[in-house]
């Protein structure tokens, strides 16, 4: 703590950028002793948005970025590979970016992928179609398994150092994918950033605007994108395109009561979904859910890490990073992950803004949060490198 206070005092007298450069130079001397330690410093500067210094702009390997395609269940999926322009076998981090319209075209993902390749880690980013439409279905799990096998078979890959890094929904889906027998024995590690553990419980929290921790229910306001993703998922359960369109309009308009015409045009399942979105009571939510057809219940189960923990390879290392003020995924999901999954590394930060860390904090907090992220990455890199 005294060391941090001295850093803050120095940074006020000089500048934050100067202080961080000195810290960087100090760790550079340690490079000959432990590469993961120095690489962690370098990558932390790239993981935080608007960070004042970027040493990797001038350091590290030259990087080759390739757009490739792979096939999953008969469909062609594009992906990006970022790899060092050098001979040899390199570790791989397979990104699962979650449900976002940007997909793998996100500038922050692009920057961090370049940074990984600069320090000798191949970044592989598959552009999973349904997730780019902000729809979460089990089909995406298959797409990640196919992506994993594709990059695993490349001639420049160190096959003992391949793993997932998943954000939010992408983290949960990559965890489920990692337990599948097709790649179960190939996954060295999984890095999870703000994932959910139980899909049903997470969805219930989003719809009811509540979070339950240790039996205590509290009000919780989810981010609008989480509400949209949950809505898209329910609508995708329906098979009739016209019914999907009708239900979407009803939910977007936030109608509270169905008209006679709406009742005639919705199936029993569609009516149950509509009713689900009207409740803010967790008990009532579960009552409605228990009336769902088996197919609907199975969808929730197949998307949940909760039901496949026992299938995880005992040698696979799991790392968990969460934001204590996350409005996308309720806090209870993090707690459940910690209770039920062997965690090799955990950190709770105050600045990650759901996978988009920034430096909009008081100066002292900047150092604290930088340190937390550095220590987390160091633990990961000791396994990856």
Task: Give a structural overview.
- By secondary structure, the chain is an alpha/beta fold.
- The protein has two domains: 57-198 and 304-384, Rossmann fold, CATH 3.40.50; 200-301, no CATH class.
- The chain is built from 16 helices and ten strands.
- It has helices at 2-13, 16-29, 35-47, 107-118, 129-132, 139-152, 169-178, 199-208, 224-236, 241-252, 260-265, 268-276, 282-289, 294-302, 331-340, 363-384; strands spanning 63-72, 75-84, 90-96, 122-126, 157-167, 189-193, 210-213, 216-219, 317-323, 345-349.
- The strands form two sheets. It has an eight-stranded mixed beta sheet, with helices on both faces. It has a two-stranded antiparallel ribbon with strand order 7-8.
- α7 (169-178) links the parallel β5 (157-167) and β6 (189-193).
- α1 crosses α2, α1 packs across α16 (363-384) and α3 (35-47) packs across α16.
- The longest helix has 22 residues, at 363-384.
- The radius of gyration is 22 Å and the shape is globular.
- Mean pLDDT is 86; it is low at 1-11 and 352-359.
Short description:
This protein is α/β, with parallel strands linked by helices and 385 residues long.
Give me the strand/helix succession. HHHEEEHEHHEHEHEEHHHHHHEHEH
| CA-CA gap between termini | 30 Å
Using the CA coordinates, give the radius of gyration.
Answer: 22 Å
| Count of domains | 2
CATH class of the largest domain equals Alpha Beta
Q: Estimate the mean pLDDT confidence.
A: 86
* Helical/strand content category: alpha/beta
Provide the descriptors you would attach to this structure in a database record.
disordered N terminus; eight-stranded mixed sheet; 385 residues; single chain; Rossmann fold; 2 domains; alpha/beta; globular
């Amino acid at each position: 703590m005294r060391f941090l206070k001295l850093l803050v005092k120095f940074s006020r007298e000089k500048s934050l950028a100067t202080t961080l450069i000195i810290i960087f130079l100090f760790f550079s001397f340690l490079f000959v002793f432990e590469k993961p330690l120095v690489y962690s410093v370098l990558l932390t500067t790239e993981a935080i948005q608007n960070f004042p210094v970027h040493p990797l702009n001038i350091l590290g390997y030259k990087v080759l970025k390739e757009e490739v395609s792979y096939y999953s269940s008969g469909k062609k999926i594009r992906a990006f590979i970022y790899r060092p322009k050098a001979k040899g076998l390199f570790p791989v981090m397979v990104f699962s970016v979650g449900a976002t319209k940007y997909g793998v075209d996100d500038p922050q993902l692009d920057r961090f992928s370049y940074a990984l390749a600069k320090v000798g880690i191949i970044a592989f980013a598959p552009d999973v179609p349904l997730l780019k439409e902000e729809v979460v279905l089990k089909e995406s799990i298959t797409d990640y398994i196919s992506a994993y096998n594709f990059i695993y078979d490349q001639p420049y890959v160190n096959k003992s150092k391949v793993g997932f890094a998943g954000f939010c929904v992408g983290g949960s889906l990559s965890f489920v994918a990692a337990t599948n027998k097709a790649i179960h024995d190939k996954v060295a590690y999984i890095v999870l950033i703000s994932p959910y553990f139980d899909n049903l419980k997470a969805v219930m929290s989003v719809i009811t605007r509540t979070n339950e921790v240790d039996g205590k229910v509290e009000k919780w306001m989810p981010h609008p994108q989480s509400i949209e993703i949950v809505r898209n998922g329910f609508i995708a359960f329906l098979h009739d395109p016209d019914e999907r369109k009708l239900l979407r309009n009803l939910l977007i308009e936030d109608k509270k009561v169905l008209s006679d015409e709406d009742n005639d045009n919705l199936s029993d399942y569609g009516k149950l979904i509509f009713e689900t979105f009207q409740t803010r009571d967790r008990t009532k939510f579960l009552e409605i859910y228990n009336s769902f057809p088996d197919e609907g219940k199975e969808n929730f189960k197949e998307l949940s890490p909760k039901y496949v923990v026992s299938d995880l390879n005992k040698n696979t290392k799991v790392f968990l990073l969460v934001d204590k003020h996350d409005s996308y995924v309720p806090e209870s999901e993090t707690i459940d992950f910690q209770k039920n999954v062997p965690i090799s590394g955990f950190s709770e930060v105050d600045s990650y803004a759901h996978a988009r860390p920034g430096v909009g904090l008081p100066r002292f907090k900047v150092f604290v949060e930088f340190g937390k992220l550095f220590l987390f990455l160091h633990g990961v890199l000791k396994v990856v490198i």
